[in-house]
Amino acid sequence: MAKNSYPFPPAAMDENQAAFFCGNLDTSSFKKHIAPHVAAIKIGARKAYLTTSLQDYLNALAGRSSHDTGKPTNPLDNLL
Fold it and tell me: Which of 44, 63, 75, 78 fits a 20 to 30 Å CA distance from 1?
């Protein structure tokens, strides 16, 4: 298996991996548009971004909650 090739995203990613996860962005676009809004964690001397935090931010940009399935809902269901 090639380095940085995973069958699933890792729990924490460096800037290059996080940029790719967020839509194959280049690192400078990730640093400008995404990184200021997502808390990084430190793992030793490394800075990393949690996959769940990135996914939550992307969902918020799309106007969806973290648990949104993407399926249309009937607004009347909220009254039940």
Answer: 44
